[in-house]
């Protein structure tokens, strides 16, 4: 390789692909390698990644539990915005990438590395997310993306390279993988192979975080989620840390088959892709957050948030978490959350999460104003006539002009 690299920090899962990348980096660049494995709540035992890295001769190994930071500093700010990409996707993969990149860049500084490397493919969005975040944090960092460089473009070639370099190949990796999986505390995503035809129903074995709605309990379950300044802080009155709270909501969502999504989305690189997403706890959280906002946000603030939400969600999806425009939008969103506190009661039943009650010490809802009975006199019905006529003025002017033209 022409690029002069002395030390690389590799985002390392311990799986076959990143183990091959580790060996490839050493062979091609003759450089030192540091591995970084992040625990974002993917539900896997991470010590095997350490043992695999040690077996491959790595001396500097970072394995870090980032679950609390992930939910507190990335997931919760995103949920304050009610962010949905293309109206439905809760951005579970997208929101994890900037945190991984942040630590890659930090570890590179700590260890004196001059480059970072990742295992994202050349067709996906993740390569963009990793690299935009890294460059935003260190404009001089070198980035190695093996999938855009090497000629190991098939499963057969990967297996051959692994065997040639004494990298253990599990039996389940020797054939074509039925689909690929990304997982963290917020969601799981599955795509590829058996899911590539959008006309065909996804096999039941693809779903990992939720049970089939047909097998969910026949009785609904009611829970209360407490909020403070836009962030969830408790379930049924019990205060929890961000990661523990999301984990508990995941349990409720799994039990009641909540949070499944079959989506054909538009990737930033220009192609469409089909994915199966499961976001059980996040789906419940989104419903609850919108519920508490419904009584605590002024209509102007609520509608402005809904208008900017697609832009905010697209920035995250496309990898611009560390961009100034995302940070500006975040400041606006966070300002709106000052009084978004209280409790929301939600009924969980066979794939749905439905609000059945909401309370807040800062509620803007007034029974006195909306009642069909006599109120306190704050609202005068006769005032509505002038209000309507003022708003109708331009419409009446247009109608008068059009009538003259038609005559």
Question: Characteristics of this structure?
Answer:
407 residues; 41% helix; 19% strand; single chain; five-stranded parallel sheet; Argininosuccinate synthetase, chain A, domain 2; elongated; Rossmann fold; alpha/beta; five-stranded antiparallel sheet
Explain what the structure shows.
The chain is built from 12 helices and 14 strands. It is an alpha/beta fold and 407 residues long. The strands form 3 sheets. Strands 3-2-1-4-5 form a 5-stranded parallel sheet, sandwiched between helices. Among the domains are: 7-66 and 95-176, Rossmann fold (3-Layer(aba) Sandwich), CATH 3.40.50.620; 181-297 and 339-359, Argininosuccinate synthetase, chain A, domain 2 (Alpha-Beta Complex). Helix 7 packs across helix 8 (280-296). It is elongated.
List the helices and strands and how they pair.
Blueprint: E1 7-11, H1 16-29, E2 32-39, H2 47-55, E3 60-65, H3 67-80, H4 97-111, E4 115-117, H5 126-137, E5 142-144, H6 155-164, E6 180-183, E7 188-191, E8 221-228, E9 231-235, E10 238-239, H7 242-255, E11 260-266, E12 272-278, H8 280-296, H9 299-317, H10 324-336, E13 342-349, E14 352-359, H11 367-370, H12 383-406
Helix pairs in contact: 3-7, 4-5, 7-8, 9-10
Query: In total, how many beta strands?
Result: 14
Counted by DSSP, the helix tally is 12
Largest sheet: 5 strands, parallel
CATH topology call of the domain at 7-66 and 95-176:
Rossmann fold
* Uncertain runs: none
The CA-CA distance between the termini, in Å, is: 79 Å
Structural class: alpha/beta
> Main sheet: which strands, in order across?
3-2-1-4-5
What CATH architecture of the domain at 7-66 and 95-176 would you give? 3-Layer(aba) Sandwich
Per DSSP, what share of the residues sits in E-state strands of 2 or more residues? 15-25%
Q: Rg from C-alpha positions? A: 26 Å
Basic shape: elongated
CATH superfamily membership of the domain at 7-66 and 95-176: HUPs
Mean pLDDT: 94
CATH class of the domain at 7-66 and 95-176: Alpha Beta
N to C succession of SSEs: EHEHEHHEHEHEEEEEHEEHHHEEHH
Helix percentage range: 40-55%
């Amino acid at each position: 390789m022409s690029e002069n690299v002395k030390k690389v920090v590799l985002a390392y899962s311990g799986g076959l692909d990143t183990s091959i990348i580790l060996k490839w980096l050493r062979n091609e660049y003759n450089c030192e390698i540091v591995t970084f494995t992040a625990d974002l709540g993917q539900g896997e035992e991470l010590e095997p990644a350490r043992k695999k890295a040690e077996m491959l001769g790595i001396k500097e190994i970072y394995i870090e539990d980032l679950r609390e930071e992930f939910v507190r500093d990335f997931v919760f700010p995103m949920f304050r915005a009610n962010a949905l990409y293309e109206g439905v996707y809760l951005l579970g993969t997208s929101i994890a990438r900037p945190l991984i990149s942040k630590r890659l860049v930090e570890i590179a500084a700590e260890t004196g590395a001059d480059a970072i490397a990742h295992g994202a493919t050349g067709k996906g969005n993740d390569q963009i997310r990793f690299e935009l975040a890294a460059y935003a944090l260190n404009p001089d960092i070198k980035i190695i993306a093996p999938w855009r460089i090497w000629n190991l473009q098939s499963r057969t070639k990967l297996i051959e390279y692994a065997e040639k370099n004494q990298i253990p190949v599990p039996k389940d990796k020797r054939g074509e993988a039925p689909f690929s999986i990304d997982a963290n505390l917020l969601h799981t995503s599955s795509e590829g192979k058996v899911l590539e035809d959008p006309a065909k129903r996804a096999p039941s074995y693809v779903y990992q975080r939720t049970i089939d709605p047909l097998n969910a309990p026949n009785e609904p379950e009611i829970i209360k989620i407490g909020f403070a300044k836009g962030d969830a802080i408790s379930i049924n009155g019990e205060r929890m840390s961000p990661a523990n709270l999301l984990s508990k909501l995941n349990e409720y969502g799994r039990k009641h088959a909540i949070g499944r999504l079959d989506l054909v989305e538009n990737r930033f690189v220009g192609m469409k892709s089909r994915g199966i997403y499961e976001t059980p706890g996040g789906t419940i959280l989104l419903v609850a957050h919108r519920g508490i906002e419904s009584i605590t946000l002024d209509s102007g603030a609520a509608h402005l948030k809904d208008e900017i939400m697609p832009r905010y969600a697209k920035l995250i999806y496309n990898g611009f978490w560390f961009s100034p425009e995302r940070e500006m939008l975040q400041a606006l969103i966070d300002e709106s959350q000052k009084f978004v506190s209280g409790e929301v009661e939600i009924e969980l039943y066979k794939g749905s999460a439905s609000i059945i009650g909401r309370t807040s010490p800062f509620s803007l809802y007034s029974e006195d104003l909306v009642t069909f009975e006599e109120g306190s006199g704050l609202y005068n019905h006769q005032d509505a006539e002038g209000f309507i006529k003022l708003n109708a003025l331009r419409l009446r002017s247009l109608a008068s002009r059009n009538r003259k033209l038609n005559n």
